[in-house]
Amino acid sequence: MQKQELVVILDFGGQYNQLIARRVRECNVYCEIKPYTTPLEEIKALHPKGIIFTGGPNSVFDMSSPHYTKEILEIGVPILGICYGCQLIAWMGDGEVKTAPVSEYGKIELQVTDPASALFRDVPETSIVWMSHTDYIATPPEGYQIVGKTNDCPCAAMQNTEKKIYAVQFHPEVTHSEYGKQILRNFLYEVCACSGDWVMDNFIENTVAALREKIGDKKVILGLSGGVDSSVAAGLLSRAVGKQLTCVFVDQGLMRKDEGDFVEQTFTTMFDMNFVRVNCGELFMSKLKGVTDPEEKRKIIGTEFYKVFWNEIRGQAEDGFFAQGTIYPDRIESGKGKSDGKANTAVIKTHHNMAKMPDDIQFLGVIEPLGDLFKDEVREVGEKLGIPHELVWRQPFPGPGLGVRIIGEITAEKVKILQEADWVLRDEMSKNGYESQLSQFFCVLPGVNTVGVMGDHRTYDNLVAIRAVTTDDFMTADWAKIPYDILAKVSNRITNEVEHINRVVYDITSKPPGTVEWE
Ligand SMILES: Nc1ncnc2c1ncn2[C@@H]1O[C@H](COP(=O)(O)OP(=O)(O)OP(=O)(O)O)[C@@H](O)[C@H]1O
Ligand SMILES: O=c1[nH]c(=O)c2[nH+]cn([C@@H]3O[C@H](COP(=O)(O)O)[C@@H](O)[C@H]3O)c2[nH]1
Ligand SMILES: NC(=O)CC[C@H](N)C(=O)O
Ligand SMILES: [Mg+2]
User: Fold this and answer.
1) Closest Cα to atom 12, ligand 2: which residue?
2) Cβ < 6 Å from ligand 1: which residues?
3) Do 516 and 396 form a contact (C-beta atoms < 8 A)?
4) How far apart are CA 31 and CA 23, in angstroms?
5) 298-350 pLDDT tens trace
6) Taking the CB of residue 335, how many other CB atoms lie within 10 A of it?
7) Where is the active site (predicted)?
8) Residue 26: strand, helix, or coil
């Protein structure tokens, strides 16, 4: 692949690390998050244009906190420290970091004390920034000059222009920091002298060339769900190797109502690609019988998916590649590519495509052409490839499907009930123009029976929950404020039209502390 300018984001366990990466990419600079345990030699070998130290929950003066070799400050690569990263730079340079007399949380006014600083180009002398810290830099290290402060934080930004090292106590990556993106942009362009070569046209061209080289004349099987990521992956692979690609859609029996037929219809009529639909609802149902643990369900579904793909490729060629539409957040959220040790982030849920591939399945290799991209970047690539707008802007749908929306054991009957309820919700949302306004909405079957009264009879039947969220990146999400009259209509229709449901509730939990899916 053609060499791209790269910025390394060194992960010290901060909550907003993915946001830092997204903002840098939005500035047209490619970046990767690396664990703080990555050796300096490895980082040097990447020839980064700049390095960003992230925030983190620890205190730098605690010796067991994540630290890094001081040598990194001497390799001549510009560095930007954020929050913990800022304190780390101070600590490494023998400045004084200690618990602050006043912690700062939330929106705080920043006062730029040196408007000539490269970091603050086109940033007003006072603006709002987002703070989240209990420690502070009491004395900056020698050679560093304070360039910004707040009422409670005497060193909110500092710089060593000679070494091109900059540090900010606040979080420029969150949108609450009014000029945050400008500050990051200044670091990338004014300090690191990036040219901004991360644009999707280049990405497509480079990726197609790299795919051709890697695949040669071999076959490729792509797991195609009809969702955004795999559809865009199909577009890229098809452009690269044409008919050597076969898209395999696994109908695992846990799709939304009519989804299987929609996917088949779309990919056999709109595109000129080899497309195979494998119906294996019964197989999945038998493997999931009696299973109630969410992680176990996810792993079983992931493993069975691999087996289906393996059987398909063997039906076509002796060897071949396996491709899937994995994107960058899938890898990060499943704990891959994260730091070990202290800054390790807990695995919240194993995405099905991150399940371990069984040992006896040996593809020539696994291809994930979108593995470094965020969702908005994937959509941009999709649009540029000419994939229809409706497909590119579909709501995400998880690979384990309704399997993670039925709490407890999955049975054919529960799948049917959930499909019907979900269908009503989707119908009402689309009639009211909510389809494109919300990031994701669906029904969940918690496996709870409640007492009701219908036509003067006592009922003891299923409760169904509605989940609807708005979010930019699915890392955090807010529950959607759907108007009461629409909710009332949905509830009324579900209880009337769907058998075995006598009660509807609305999930009003944001993420965190909840997650989007219930399992
Ligand atoms: N039913 C399926 N059949 C074949 N492959 C699937 C299926 N579901 C998921 N996959 C594979 O797993 C990958 C990850 O699933 P994921 O849901 O994250 O992506 P997607 O379905 O392509 O897009 P979206 O996030 O919009 O739903 C897919 O890109 C695809 O390669
Ligand atoms: O392909 C997928 N395989 C999975 O195993 C999986 N689990 C969650 N999701 C989707 O990820 C987003 C965030 O969901 P959570 O807040 O539940 O983690 C939401 O969009 C979820 O629908 C998955 N997608
Ligand atoms: N958000 C952060 O990076 C916090 C850094 C450090 N733990 C503090 O409280 O000051
Ligand atoms: Mg999907």
Assistant:
1) 474
2) 223-225, 227-230, 248-250, 252, 324-326, 330, 353, 394, 396-399
3) no
4) 10
5) 999 999 999 999 998 888 888 999 999 999 888 776 655 444 333 455 677 88
6) 16
7) 83 (nucleophile), 171, 173
8) helix
Question: Residue 167, exposed/middle/buried by CB under 10 A (0-12, 13-18, 19+)?
Answer: buried
| Token pair belonging to 121 | 């180009």
Could you please report the per-residue DSSP string of 241-310?
A: HGGGEEEEEEE-S-SPTTHHHHHHHHHHHT--SEEEEEE-HHHHHHHHTT---HHHHHHHHHHHHHHHHH
* Ligand closest to the CA atom of residue 305: 1
Q: Map residue 267 onto helix, strand or coil.
A: helix
Span between the terminal Cα atoms of the chain, in Å: 38
Protein residues placing their CB within 5 Å of the ion ligand 4:
225, 227, 397
Residues assigned a catalytic role: 83, 171, 173
Q: 406: which strand partners?
A: 445
The verdict on whether residue 461 carries a ligand-binding annotation is no
According to DSSP, residue 345 is labeled P
ipTM of the complex: 0.92
> Strand, helix or coil at 457?
strand
265: part of which helix (H) or strand (E)?
A: helix 259-269
Which residue, chain included where needed, has tokens 């390095």? 51
| Residues 259/426, Cβ–Cβ less than 8 Å | no
Nearest to 403 by CA among 256, 230, 508: 256
Question: What digits encode the pLDDT tens for the residues 65-96?
Answer: 999 999 999 999 999 999 999 999 999 999 99
> What count of other Cβ atoms lies within 10 Å of the Cβ of residue 16?
21
231 is in an annotated binding site: yes
Say how many CA atoms lie within 13 Å of 425 toward its Cβ: 25
Q: Please tell me whether the peptide bond between 294 and the residue prior to it is cis, using omega within 30 degrees of 0.
A: no
**From 351, 378, 517, 518, mutation site for ligand 2 pocket: most ligand atoms within 8 A of C-beta:** 517
* Annotated binding residue 229: yes
Average pLDDT over residues 436-443: 94
Take atom 20 of ligand 2 and give the residue whose Cα is closest: 396
- Does pTM surpass 0.90? no
User: Among the atoms of ligand 3, which is closest to the Cα of residue 56?
Assistant: 3
d(CA 57, CA 202): 37
Cis geometry, peptide bond prior to residue 512 (ω within 30 degrees of 0)? yes
Tokens linked to 357: 């591939």
Label the pairing between strands 440-444 and 449-454.
unpaired
C-alpha–C-alpha distance, residues 168 and 20, integer Å: 13
Kind and range of the H or E run holding 8: strand 6-11
Q: Are 75 and 108 in contact (CB under 8 A)?
A: no
Structural domains of the chain, ranges and CATH numbers in brackets: 6-191 (3.40.50.880), 200-392 (3.40.50.620), 411-506 (3.30.300.10)
Distance of CA 404 to the CA centre of its chain: 18
